Each structure stands twice: as C-alpha cells, then as structure tokens.
Amino acid sequence: MAAQDIRKVFNDPIHGSIELHPMLVRIIDTPQFQRLRFIKQMGGVYYVYPGASHNRFEHSIGVAHLAGKLLKALREKQPELEISDKDILCVQIAGLCHDLGHGPFSHLFDNMVIPKIEPGSTWKHEEASIKMFKYLVETNKLEFNKPDLTALDFIFIKELIHSEHRVNARKWGYKGRPEEKSFLYEIVANKLTGIDVDKMDYLARDCYHLGFPNNFDHNRFIQMIRVCEVPINSEEKRRRICIRDKERYNLHILFNSRYRVFSVACTHRVVCSVQLMIADALVEAQRSGAMDLSGAKEDMEKYTALTDRVFEEILNSDSAELEESKSILNRILSRELYRHVCSIRMDGAEGGEELNLVIELLNHELLDNNLQFLRNDLNYGQGPKNPLENMYFYTKNAPNTARPLSELDDVLVFPNRFQDTFINLYDKRLNQVPVCPTVVTECLEKVTEGLEKVTEYLEEVERSPEEVPECPADLTVYLEKVTEYMEKVKKSPEDFTEYLKKINERLEKAIKDQEAMQH
C-alpha cells in the first residue's frame, strides 16, 4: 500500500482521535488548506479572550470528522437509504473545505472590510470557498478518480459547500445527487434549520477555547436522528433529517449556547472596538493603494497568501502608504482602542432593512467626527425566527412519521422573541472628550433633511421621466442608498422620518446616561 493511501489519525482536543480518509489527508497537505492555520476562527475575539487562539484549520478537520460520523450512524440505522462510501467521502470533503474561502480574521473580512472597499457587494466567503477548492484540486493535481470520484461527485461537493438551491423547494434543483438523497444536503450547511455539523463543531470548539460551558451533546444528537419523509407541499414529500421528539430540549440548548457565545464574546464591546480598528486598518491599506485586498479575493493564488498575517505585514512595513494603517494597528497593541460611547436595543420590529439604511447614512454624516455606529444582531441563527419551527421530529412509537414542532404534545417554553438588535456608537478619537449628544442629533437632522431632498428629487423624476434632472452632488450617496433599500423594503423615504425620531430620542438618552455613569 502506497504511503499516500494510508489513513492518518489526528489528535483533537474536542473529538479525541480522528481517523481521516487518505483523500482528506491529501487535501489537508496542500498550501491552500494549510493557509487556514493562519486564520483565527473567532477573528478579533482573541484580543479580548486570549484562549480564543484556535484557527479555521482544526475546525475544518472537526467538521469533516462529524460529517462522516453522522452519515455512518445513519447508514447503520437505515440501510434502506443506500448511503454509499462515496456519499460519505464527498460530504466529508465538503465539510473539510467549506471554509477555504475565509479571508483575514474570518467573518470580519466578509462583514466589515468588503462592504467598505466594495460598496453594494454581496460577496461572501462561501463563493471563494468553491473557487479555492477548485484551485486546490487543479494546482495540486489531486486525482479524484483514485477514490473513484467522478465529475458529478465534484459538482456534489461544490453544491454542499455553497448553493442557491433549497432542500424544501418544490422543484429539485441540485445536480450532484438525486432527490431521494436530499437529506445529504442538510449535513454540512443546513439552510432550513441551521442545525448542522459546522455549528456543532464551532460551538464545542469556541466554548472550549473561551472557557465557557457547552451543554449541547452532539454525540447524543447523532444517535437520535433518522431520515423520514417530510411534506414539502400538500402533495409531495421529501427525505429530510428528523430528530427524536424528546431531543428538542437538547436542540434548544444548542441555540441558547450560540446566543451566549455571540452575546458574551463575539459582540463584546471591546471585541467590536478591536474589530472596527482592524477593519479600518485593512480598508485604509486598500484605499492607499498599498494592498489590493479586493483583487486578491478574486485571484486564488494571491488569496492563498492573504491571512491574518496581513496584520504583521502592515506593522513591519516601511511603506509610507501604510502609515495610517500601521498607526491604527499600533493603537490596538498599546490598548488605545476606539471608545464605546453607548448602546441601544431596538425592538424586533425595528431591526430590519430600515435600520441598515439609517446606520449607513449616519456613518456617512459622522465621518468627519470620527464616530461610527455598529449594528449587532443576536439570535438563534435564523434571524427573528424560531429555528425549531423548520425542524421535524419522530416519536418512539412512530419512528418513520415526521411531525412538526406544533404537533408535539408538550411544547418547550420559548422566549417571546428570537433576536435582539443593538446599535453601538464608537468614538475613534484618542482623546477622552465626551461625545456631545447634539453631535448625533445634528447628524440625524442632516439625514432627515437628506431623505426629504431625495424624496423631492424622486418626485421630480417621476413627473418628468423623459427629462431626468441631474442629482445634486451632496445627494449622490443618499440616492444610491435609498434606491437600494426601497427595492428591498418597498417603502418610500418619508417612511423613515418617524423611525429617525425614535432613534434620535433613544440615542440622546443613551449618551447622557453613559456620560452620567462615567462621572
């Protein structure tokens, strides 16, 4: 037997000894996968919680392990599903490679850097994961035919990593596997419920490194799942992963744990301050022309070299173009962080696209004041919805009958809402001069005035569509943002007026209360 065909064992602090298929080992032993050693799993959280030093590398191996464990358990319990060795290997490869596309500091790159250097961009790391996977296979000349994988299997793996299709769509849109194996698409990235091996590994791993307790038992979950026929409409059914009815308590713990990690660690006010500073440094490096982060994510050779080490590259650079970025990063090291001014919680009904519009326009007006608003959503993984509502359950006496949560005899006591939305205001200045509430008030007045002008301009355009007047220069940003959001929320600029008044009142009070506490 050739050395490359031998299974290897990895010792993992979460799952113990992990034995991986030779094909998985060959993928791991490539520069594109080894790159994940240098990307922190939790981004800037490490600068507040020093135990959070784990990387995407070990998480990806953990996801591949859990994917294989889950499918092998299903195959043993339900041989009629005809789960093949190839099915298991493909799902494991997808689990191993699902995070190949992450940029520096993980989600910080997606959510805080790209939107600033490419306004309006919808780019997400999943897209880059597929590109990097293809690049990895081609560059390293990996022979997929050795484990008898075909072109169709390659398509299947890419669909598992990222696809616009849905398992519960009326028309089956996937190509990698037929409809009777629909349940395979719920294992690595479950769009319907958010219950997948990716979440199980990162929660266990994050809690371990943060020093938080994790009461969710993923091994018990794997033991308790079955595949049942679930209705997708009044006439048709499709195979989906279901869980024993009594395990909904265990699932509730899963989502509760996620909420706690995000609330206490990921959106910690100092973590957010650090992440804003890292993002500002990277955005400034792009704007100065010293680095091409935007271009790198489209070029997999360059993207392979783009990791968290960009932090040290900027700090150690002698380039005059990177002086501003270096200054921001040095402030992180000397703990001269952006100051958290205040935080206000929005009601669930007030945390939609309107809030995104308001925050973007406020930040546009606050640029000269070195102030920035940041939105944080804390939820159970499915926005304001209860994720268990999309889950189906079976009972001890009817193991092949799928039932929704609403049909179970006794229902869990759930929270009255599943998402909290916070607006946080940060002061980027080095001095400790308190932020005057009137600065924010004046900013809100400018936004209100800008929205009114945009309304007048749009009305004029509607009256004279053949002779469209030129948009005033100071309204260009407003027109662009308002038009974008009007398409999403189907509302006019006037609808935001009352909304702005509410935010204004809350912000003024929050700033005054914060300053009173400090004095």
Can you give a write-up of this model?
With 519 residues, the protein is α+β, with helices and mostly antiparallel strands. Among the domains are: 3-236, Hypothetical protein af1432; 344-376 and 431-519, no CATH class. 47% of the residues lie in helices and 11% in strands. It contains 19 helices and nine strands. Strands 3-4-7-8 form a four-stranded mixed β-sheet. Strands 5-9-6 form a three-stranded antiparallel β-sheet, with helices on both faces. A hairpin with an 8-residue loop joins β7 and β8. α3 (56-77) runs antiparallel to α4 (85-97) and α16 packs across α17 (437-463). The longest helix has 27 residues, at 437-463. It is globular and about 65 Å long. It starts with 7 loop residues before the first strand and ends with a helix.
The global form is: globular
The low-pLDDT segments are none
Which range does the strand content fall in? 5-15%
Number of strands: 9
Output the CATH class name of one domain: Mainly Alpha
